Amino acid sequence: MDKKKLIQNKDLQYLSSQDNYPAKLAVVGAAITTLGDAISTIAAALALEEAQNSNNQNSQSQKEQEKQLMRMQNQIDYLTAQLSKIDRKKN
Q: What is the dihedral of CA 19, 21, 26, 32, to 10 degrees?
């Protein structure tokens, strides 16, 4: 009977370890999912930061273009005034 009890104990240990296997797989799966979520969150944060930097650069570029246009307009106004003076002198 000792052999029979020993075999039964081994069978119970095997079954017990088999019962834990799905639970262990669930823990591993949850850990992998959590890691994936963390990587996704980091990627989203980086994308947001890049978009903000791009918007800032576009805003600065637009301001520089506006300044350039203002300078050009001032030059056009100056040249127009000079042409008017020359035209008045001729007449």
A: 170
